[in-house]
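During the reporting period the student researcher (J.K.) took over the structure-prediction task from the postdoctoral fellow and processed the backlog of single-chain submissions. One of the processed entries is reproduced below for the supervisory committee.
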Amino acid sequence: MALRAIIYKAELQIADMDRHYYADHALTIARHPSETDERMMARVLAYALYARDGIAFTKGLFEVDEPEVWVKSLAGEIDLWIDLGQPDDARIRRACGRAGQVVVLCYSSSCDVWWKQIASKLTRFTNLTVLQLSAETSQALAALAERGMRLQCMVQDGEIWINTDKESVPVKLISLQAAR
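J.K. obtained the following structure tokens:
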């Protein structure tokens, strides 16, 4: 018998003063049986940082040809493709060809090794942003995971905070490659 996704609900309030984006989102998050809290919360973080009209979680691990989060235009074109972890360079190349903007959010302690192996293969992509989330931060975000969550994401002057009623986690992202 196949294992089923675990459903999480999140009320996400976003106050992004850098982008002038303020909104409340009611999220239903299907966590794949093989997905960790750390990965799921990295998805929520990516959603919060790039939230805008049309943003949505995809089937993710259930569908290998889709990113974790995307924004599609009304015409069905992919405006934004967000992948997590350490995708191979072929997947990133395909994403850069299919989407207007591509973001890869790497969140494990082995990011440095992965990036050293593929960085030179990706420098030509002007629509690619690669961000690294420290292992300590991703583990602190994982500790916030609950089946019913109330989260606030605040962004001001490049500083990011994820808050619950009980805890605050400062989020530091390192830019490995910025879109040009």
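The committee noted the following: The first helix runs from residue 37 to 49.
J.K. will present the remaining backlog at the next meeting.
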